[in-house]
Amino acid sequence: MSKNIGIIDLGSNSIRLILMKIGKNGSYKLLDEIKETARIGENMGPERVIKGPAIDRAVQTTKLFQKFCRANRADGVHGVATAAIRSAVNGGEVLETIMKETGVSFRILSEQEEAHYEYLGVVNSLEFNDALLVDIGGGSTELILCRDRKIVHWASLPIGAVNLTENFLPSTVPQPDEVKQLEKYLADQFATIPWLESARGLEIIGVGGTIRNLGRIDRKRTRYSLNLLHNYRIHSERVKEIYHHLQKTTVEERKAIPGLSKERADIILGGLAEVSKLLNYTGAPGIRISGAGLREGVFYEYLFRDWPEPVVDNVTEHSVQNFMDLYQVRRYHAEHVAKLSLSLFDQLRPLHGYGLWERKILRIAALLHDVGNVVSYYNHHKHTMYVLLNARLNGLSHRELVLVSLVAACHGKIDLKFKLQQHSDVLFPQDGNMVRRLGVLIRMAENLDRTESGVVQDVICTIKEKEVQIDCVTNENADLEIRELYKKVTNFNKVFGIKFKFPKEV
């Protein structure tokens, strides 16, 4: 039985809801998400009291989210509260008020629990081994050192975009002495974490609204060809450029900056100062953005609640299998096309010279080449390309994602030259030839299973001086498959530079 699960994150700056669908076959996807800037951590002061207006905003927002979940037939709503509620002297009373007014109960996360859920969100959606994870919220920052994809150290600092801005940047346009004091304070805060020295030079993976907005600004500045934020990388120099540029602007001017949320314009500098200083402090080459964090971590814990540990072994493979279930891919056909594609790839290696990385691209493309059928059979190869570039396939870099989408689409006809030019900012110059070659292999394999019955069990490739003979190992008559192969695969000679001899059955 399918389920819809709502998860509400009551943060210092914003309250966020994600609505996740779990299918009957165990597949899952994001159905919807909503964010409201409630600022419950605003103006708490040294007495650490959440004020009446902030409580009202929290209650009204939770009511809206509860109504939304009810309208979408959510089977359960899980509420979690973080830094503002945790640190407020009246945090428990606030949650009691919300529960009384809305019926939604919230669990106050400890600093360690918050770090753990952020880790679960990242580790189940990005491929990495050693990294420093950072989540900059409105009122706290979590730092998590991972080695071999496991937590070895974590720390929580009582600083975030809201309180850093309130305490250090009161001027309309930040003054040099204000910025200097803020950066010194940040350095002092980082110095309180003894293990942070051991993270020097490691990649930083960032979570949270500040870092997502940083990514959106950078995408607009560079005119990035993909509308993707998850797994987006920003070099440290570009972070500094954006940070220094925003220091010279007023809040109203920031609201006009492409990519920057108007609701975050007044607090973005406090968060960016922390990102910039952390990059300097650790010597990290840049930052990689994770679109999954605390809320997704709570979901993964629920989804994998019967596992010994709610962490997938292989992010890419898990995501590919989820896609196949989610988009109702005919598994036997997809896996057989993958088998034939890889057999062709392995036997024709003397012609193309590719290795394990290209083999991975081909395998994933073959397994997912028919996901576009969920839209329509007609032009489904083009729909496949769109789905792969716009639905979140976790684990792949943006370059790998573009390559997989293009190779998968090559089992039909596409304007490959245009697509290569469109994504030239992501691809390498040599990628075009690779796509053409892998595309031929996947088209051959697709047509060798035209009846989707596995008639052609395997292929035998014989590379001669002036031609390649490809014979089919069959278990019954394969006339249709061989005819389709002959009609549809017409560019083998051009792509591989050698003649392709019509196959025979063996």
TrEMBL record:
Protein name: Exopolyphosphatase
Domain Ppx/GppA phosphatase N-terminal: 25-303
GO terms assigned for molecular function: pyrophosphatase activity
Keywords attached to this entry: Hydrolase
Source species, domain of life: Bacteria
Keyword Hydrolase assigned: yes
Family indicated by similarity: Belongs to the GppA/Ppx family.
Any matching Pfam family: Ppx-GppA_III
Sequence ranges assigned to domain Ppx/GppA phosphatase C-terminal in this UniProt record: 317-470
The keyword Cell cycle is assigned to this record: no
Originating organism: Desulforamulus profundi
